[in-house]
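Q: Give me the 3D complex with adenosine-5'-triphosphate.
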Amino acid sequence: MEVEHLTVRFGDHLALEDVTLAVPAGAFVAIVGPNGAGKSTLLKVLLGLVPPSHGRVRVLGSPSDKVDPRRIGYVPQFKTLDRTFPALAEELVASGLRRAWPGRLTSGERARVRAALERVGAGQLIGRPVSRFSGGELQRVYLARAFVRRPQLVMLDEPATGIDVLGEADMYRLLEDYQKETGATLLMITHDWEAAYHHATHVIVLNRRLIGFGPPERALSERCLREAFGHVGHAHGFSLALGGERRA
Ligand SMILES: Nc1ncnc2c1ncn2[C@@H]1O[C@H](COP(=O)(O)OP(=O)(O)OP(=O)(O)O)[C@@H](O)[C@H]1O
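A: Here is the predicted complex, encoded as structure tokens.
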């Protein structure tokens, strides 16, 4: 991904200002920043959903609005997942294979859906309605949907919000396994600095402008965090993590 001098305006409001960065293929990138910092806007620009007001954005070698969305896996914010949606897990995962809502699946598609669910440890959920799933189960099904085409780029919007600590650990393991197997690039918005520190290879610290970008030890420096958030996160016990070994 290459972002050059990206500025996004919504009317008079400047959501992103002159952001320039290049993410190497195969990186696991965490985007951190306070509420309203422009994190989701950056993701939407990369997905080709919001046009840049100024600047240039290339994703998977093409301008972001020209990339086939099926080459990108997307996991929405947990809090916006619809639990009442009248679908089976199989159909929800299959919707990642086709641009339209799947009708009857071919046997090849069904096999791919099954493999994607098994990869995330959710093979047994295939014929069950998503409306009855727990948070962790639903999260797995959405991961399977993002992985089903084996995309080279996976974007995740606060994927751990609302799932418990065990579910969260599982999710990072699944992401890391997928990345090892496919060499894909992962891009994740998170409010959890420790997760960014321990799992990401690169961190983007954003507050409308790019405050920091690089390996977690450098981007999550006290200076960058103070500049972006106005504090260094005692609530997260993050000052301890800064001195600790990275887990991943
Ligand atoms: N479609 C839109 N029209 C007008 N303003 C918008 C639009 N989308 C985002 N904004 C504004 O742009 C700013 C950045 O929003 P964005 O959703 O990118 O922030 P964020 O960093 O993802 O925030 P959060 O952590 O709260 O999810 C906010 O002030 C938001 O109100």
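A quick observation: The first strand starts at residue 2 and ends at 10.
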